[in-house]
Amino acid sequence: MYHVRSNEPRFDVPDFTLESNSLTIHTTDAEVGKDFQPPSKIKEGSGHSVTWYELEPLDSSRSKRLRKTIAKELVNKFLLINSERDYILTDFPLGYRLYCHKKGTRVGHDDVRHDFYIYGAGYKFRSANEALFHFAWLMRGMPKRRCICVYDTPITAHKRRQGALNRQYKRAWDAVLQDRHKQHVAAYQASVKDKAPREPSPPTLNVFNDACFLLPE
Ligand SMILES: [Zn+2]
């Protein structure tokens, strides 16, 4: 249980904790001892290029940036905490790791390209957006057949198509904002009518934005 401001939504579930600006996901679908193992060999590609994997350290700026992007989106939009604060995922869920796939002209010279992937539980997430829907599902305790991520979704149009999922997500989020606005207006009008100051509504407990992040039950 945490609360920063008395009227902020609160959560009391075993799947994650939010303390101050740190989000920690406790639930994982990764199996012990089955972590992704990158090929240890340097692979020779076409055009005299070589490719290899490196584990990205948790304290690298790339890792921090990615974990901040994921946490901010999840806290603001999945947990519906309307705050300008920065949030960070303290670590990836157990069994998930960030790798950099490097390509260079020779061993040790990653001068062609870097691609970052979050590996875990058999998934290879290519961006913060790809991962965050699956992580939202972990935070809900992995309800069966409800993960909306592009690897688990039964919606054909979204299968491995993050752009299509992002567009659907944006529409759903816009609807949430419109709804929020309507509620504010209605509450304001009610307070004017009653000539009474508006009482702040009590904080909600364990309320999630499932409409934007999970498939319906
Ligand atoms: Zn998923």
UniProtKB/TrEMBL annotation:
Signal peptide: none
One GO cellular component term: mating-type region heterochromatin
Cryptic loci regulator 2 N-terminal domain sequence ranges: 87-151
Origin superkingdom: Eukaryota
Gene Ontology BP annotations: silent mating-type cassette heterochromatin formation
Protein name: Cryptic loci regulator 2 N-terminal domain-containing protein
PANTHER family, per the entry: CRYPTIC LOCI REGULATOR 2
One Pfam entry name: Clr2_transil
